[in-house]
Amino acid sequence: MEECSPLPMYLRVKLYIYLLVVLGNLLVYQQTTAKALGDADSLHYALLHTTSDTSKVLILSELSYIYYISNTQKAIDYAQQGIKLAEKIKYLRGLAYCLNRKGVVYYFLSDQVEAMNIFLKSLAISDSIQDYRLSGMNLSKIADIHREAGNTERALEEHKKAIQLLRKVNDSLQLNIALNRIALIYQVQKKHEEAISNFKEALLIARKIKNYRQIAVALFYTGEFYINTNRFDSAAQYFREAYEINKIAKNRLLDIGILTYQSQILLKANKSDSAIILANTALRLAKKMSNKYGAKNATYQLYEIYKYSNNSDSSLKYYQLSTELKDSIFNENNSKTIRQLQTNYEAEKHKAEIQKNQREIQEQKTLIKVFVLSLIGIILLVFILYYANTQKVKANTLLNAQKQEISKQHHDLQILTDRTQSQYEILKKQRNELLSLNEEFSSQHEQLKSLNENLEETVRQRTKELEITIDNLHQQNQSLEQFSYIISHNLRAPVARILGLVNVIEKKDITGKINHDILAYLEKSTQNLDEILHDLTNIIELRNSFDKFREKITISEIVFHNLDQFKEEIEKNQVEIITNFLACNLIFSVKSSVNGILHNIISNAIKYRSQKRKLQITFKTQRIDDYICLFITDNGIGINLEDVPMYKIFGLYQRMHDHVEGKGLGLYLVKTQVETLNGKIEMESKEDLGTTLKVYFPDQTLQPAQ
After folding, report:
1. Is the separation of the CB atoms in 533 and 491 below 8 Å?
2. Over the Cα atoms of the chain, what is R_g?
3. Which of 279, 314, 573, 575 could form a disulfide with 4 if both were Cys (CB 3.0 to 4.6 A apart)?
């Protein structure tokens, strides 16, 4: 590569003046470093002489922060010592601060995955103890990680939360930093008004607290904003002030950016010689500090200057240098992007774990309530069954007695009839005695008439008593249904309590193999009872669901909703889904029941798939008579229906295959739900070929919602 042509004498003089200024700034920077080391010595002395463990934790936190730039390993060691001590004495505030310092070190080392995990742990603790300042600092760092990963919307959301908390505690320094960060995001999103508003507020806060480093940063960001919006005169003013303030702040990285932008402004003003001096100064500083970004920007600026001056050799030289630095940074950014993706994954994983724990706690509370109600229900069910059986025995006894009474009266009537017939024969043979016997016969006839009337009245009374008995039995049946529902829900709580007690028994204190076996059998039996009660609860709920709200349901929508619940298994087993809802795509039914039907059928299709071929499930609708039929066909292992009665297929606890885990409840629940909806279900299946289930829904799509 050719060397750049020598600079004129007056340009060299200007360059030497700028180099002297830079050397002076470096000397001041060394003094600042010495001050930081002095602070570290003071903290070391305090750490050795303090007797308070909480004070030691906070000192270790500050030591970690002092060393995170100059000696990252020492910073990590101090933070880790503080974490261990804080965990030992259960000092949550100190633990949260030490975790934050450790996260800052890993962020500085560009290990964004580890930094994100540490900041999330610190945030959880700071939120629990309501340390809003530390929560704001953690959220600001988490937002920076999202911003560098390109997730600007998530970064914007976290920065807003951080700013809200920092305003609440009136932490001016951290608020200043957060305002600058959120303004950078607005600048990327081309929201210029929001960006300049936050930059100026950050500058105002920095001037108020007299933090020269933050003043210089805010001035630089504001100048950069005006550069990007092509307002070079305003930008030049802010960069000049930033350069003067930074002489006190000693931020070398900021000097590189300021000099590069000033060179760009001079080039716009056709002052290429001055622009070259500033760009070269920025390049030397960047090389000294091994800052590839600064070096790339400075070399590219030199390329632009020489290109503007028609110096093709120098222009080509700096263009090649800029390209090499750009490629190097690109490779580093690729690695950084991969780390950022890992960071985002860890953050989402952590959030999912929290939600899962909350769901498990809620489910446990629900199970406890159901179990208590189930136990009470079982006790009431036993009592009702006993009472109903007693009443039934009494009713049967009374009915048998009434039958015997009627039979006896019928027998007496038959005897009386026979006697009358005999007397009639006698009267016929003995006409001479007709008058006397006729009077006797009339008397007997009146008695017979009275007896018949009494018999009809007796039968009427017995019939009325039977009707009352039937009404009582009907009411008892309704009571049985009500109490069976209560029992199935209330018995589960005591069973859960028994299981809990079995689990907390100190089994190691129980001696004797027989006692251990008895305890194991007790635990197994209780678990079986719990499963039966759970099944009973589902069945009763299905039996009593006939009056649920019915609505118009789109078949395709509810099918894909249920398929989405099995998304992981479908993708894992490469299941092919085929749908055809052209014939009909609307039914009028109970949405929760249709969900339950499809969930069980899809679950069975995946569970009983064939290992010989890829699973294929087809959904198709067709109008048949007064029904809308949903055909669900799979090419699974199938069933030989010739060997199995149909009532067993849909029976309770009936299983056709033992090689797959199950309870034999799915198809029973499907049939129960279909019948509750006034529908019907049919099955066609052949072994090793597949199964087709036909679910018939009543065709009521034009009926208004009830």
Report:
1. yes
2. 45
3. 314
What is the Cα–Cα distance from 223 to 246, expressed in whole angstroms?
Answer: 14
d(CA 468, CA 458): 15
Tell me how far the alpha carbon of residue 7 is from its chain's centroid: 66
Phi, psi values for residue 309, rounded to 5°: -85, 5
- pLDDT digit string (tens) for 496-513? 777 777 776 766 666 667
10 Å Cβ neighbour count for 603?
16
Q: How far is CA 541 from CA 130, 537, 648, in A?
A: 45, 6, 22
Whole-angstrom CA distances from 243 to 17, 19, 183, 693 are 15, 15, 21, 79
**Does the pLDDT of residue 37 top 70, yes or no?**
no
Q: What is the band of 695 on the pLDDT scale with cuts at 50, 70, 90?
A: very high
Q: Rounded to whole angstroms, how far apart are CA atoms 522 and 389?
A: 30
Q: What is the pLDDT of residues 164-201, one digit of tens each?
A: 988 888 888 888 888 888 888 888 888 888 888 998 88
How far, in Å, CA of 224 to CA of 217, rounded?
Answer: 10
- Per-residue confidence (pLDDT) for residue 505, from 0 to 100: 73
Q: Amino acid letter at 338?
A: I
Q: What is the DSSP string of 173-218?
A: HHHHHHHHHHHHHHHHTT-HHHHHHHHHHHHHHHHHHT-HHHHHHH
d(CA 328, CA 291): 12
CA distance 17 to 5: 20
DSSP structure class, residue 432 = G
Residue 698 contacts residue 627 (beta carbons within 8 Å)? yes
